[in-house]
Design a protein that fits this description.
Rossmann fold, six-stranded mixed sheet
Length: 240
């Protein structure tokens, strides 16, 4: 079987030709189905740019990307959008919830793009909220929820379409330490159910919740470490 994700020689350049900014420089990476991978690096290392490319939110300016054996470069705009909606769930640091929508309405948003009616969407959204421990918060709006609860709503929204991959960009960055630990426990439970997770972080203590850590610096992958042998190798590379 082909890897779920395989990229080779991926580059991403922004800006004018006479003053290019190279965010990614010849990145190779393979992610197998069912893995929990942390992509770690300091600010400006290219990790969020890589996440956007992996999640089909952006296109590389060089290299190849195969998703489940298919060359993503052959996808047109509509197929790219459909693929993204069907196979990826996204969780961001800032939650990105609609302030006037209830928790259930926020969770149901990806199902709107699949053409499901309100009657079809609601029970699926309720089940997704229940799976993250928020069955009692269905009708609450974001301002009525704690930061941890808002992130749980965002995670339920990412899961509601039953994606193959959950992509999480600094999901604990806006949370206090204890709440962040609870969110990371939830990610481990989600991974335990068979979901592939790619976690973007600058924090070693967060990255160590994954099974593999991919370290980036200056737009390049500098190391791959399986958890258990990762800590000493990574600590030596962390900026002071």
């Amino acid at each position: 079987m082909a890897p779920l994700i395989e990229i080779a020689g991926i580059g991403r350049v922004y800006g004018a030709t006479n003053a290019p900014v190279r965010a990614l420089n010849h990145v190779d990476l393979t992610i197998e189905q069912g893995e929990f991978v942390a992509i770690m690096g300091p600010s400006g290392s290219g990790k969020s740019t890589l996440m956007n490319i992996l999640g089909l939110l952006d296109r590389p300016t060089g290299g190849r990307y195969w998703f489940d054996g298919e060359d993503v470069a052959t996808f047109g705009h509509d197929r790219l959008a459909a693929h993204r909606n069907r196979h990826f769930g996204f969780v961001f640091q800032g939650f990105n919830l609609l302030p006037r929508a209830t928790a259930a309405e926020n969770v149901a948003i990806p199902l709107i793009y699949r053409g499901l009616s309100r009657a079809e969407r609601h029970p699926i959204a309720v089940a997704a909220l229940a799976s993250v421990g928020l069955a009692h918060r269905l009708r609450h709006r974001p301002q009525q929820l704690s930061g941890g609860e808002q992130q749980r709503v965002a995670i339920a929204r990412a899961l509601v379409g039953d994606p193959l991959i959950l992509l999480a960009d600094e999901p604990t960055g806006a949370l206090d330490t204890e709440t962040g630990k609870e969110i990371l426990k939830l990610f481990k439970l989600i991974h335990g159910s068979g979901r592939t997770i790619v976690l973007i972080t600058h924090d070693l203590s967060v990255a160590q919740h994954a099974n593999r850590i991919v370290s980036m610096r200056d737009g390049r992958v500098v190391s791959h470490n399986m958890i258990g042998e990762a800590r000493s190798a990574l600590v030596s590379r962390m900026p002071g």
